[in-house]
Amino acid sequence: AQKITQTQPGMFVQEKEAVTLDCTYDTSDPSYGLFWYKQPSSGEMIFLIYQGSYDQQNATEGRYSLNFQKARKSANLVISASQLGDSAMYFCAMRETNTGNQFYFGTGTSLTVIP
Amino acid sequence: DADVTQTPRNRITKTGKRIMLECSQTKGHDRMYWYRQDPGLGLRLIYYSFDVKDINKGEISDGYSVSRQAQAKFSLSLESAIPNQTALYFCATSDPHRESTDTQYFGPGTRLTVL
């Protein structure tokens, strides 16, 4: 079974609007971390935001927030006030403690911001 | 200067050739990783190392080998390259002792083409 599932291969959003990128995960480990990375067309992987499994509040970093619904095993990324520079691939990832802190990545969502 | 560097950034080689990809980091992190990225498949873990004397196979280690020459250096070798090893290769580092989230930080990537 896939550890991380991103069901949206591609998304479009109007500039200045908010967009939600979906991510669901599968683990039986009570201790895990969830991450989002951005990959622009230049190719580098840029860390955006982190949510720990024991964190009570949703993580926020500037225009990025993570909608963490533990019972549903979802960790959606919300980007507010989209900008043209947000156009990129976005990857959700999970770190499991019981597999030696290995990371598992989803297949990514391509976001295009329309002017 | 970048914290995680990879050399070369681009490489074209022929089937059967031996090739080495190098990764260096100035972050002082203990843990280093090698991933490959293929279109539509996200990132997959090849090998990882939690310290100089610790090397572990990841999800797709066949056809690859690694060497952890020092805390700051982690090399990936393809002993006899084949066309399906054409991919974007990433090195990453992390350190749970320095950062409790154990976030992975990526190098800029090496684009490898095997003809």
In short, what is this structure?
The complex is a heterodimer of chains A (115) and B (115). Chain A has 115 residues and is an all-beta fold. Chain A has strands at 4-5, 10-14, 19-21, 24-25, 32-39, 46-52, 60-61, 64-69, 74-79, 88-96, 103-105, 109-114.
Number of strands of chain A: 12
Average residue-wise pLDDT of chain B: 93
Oligomer: heterodimer
Would you identify the regions of chain A where 5 or more consecutive residues have pLDDT less than 50? none
Radius of gyration computed on alpha carbons of chain A: 14 Å
Order of H and E elements of chain A: EEEEEEEEEEEE
Mean of all residue-level pLDDT scores of chain A: 94
What letter string, H or E per element, gives the SSE order of chain B?
EEEEEEEEEEE
Bin the strand percentage of chain A. Answer: over 45%
Alpha-beta content class of chain A: mainly beta
Biggest interface, chains and residue tallies: A-B, 22 and 26 residues
Q: Roughly how much helix do the residues of chain A carry, as a percent range?
A: under 10%
Strand content of chain B: over 45%
Shape of chain B: globular
Number of strands of chain B: 11
Give the end-to-end Cα distance of chain B, rounded to a whole number of Å. 33 Å
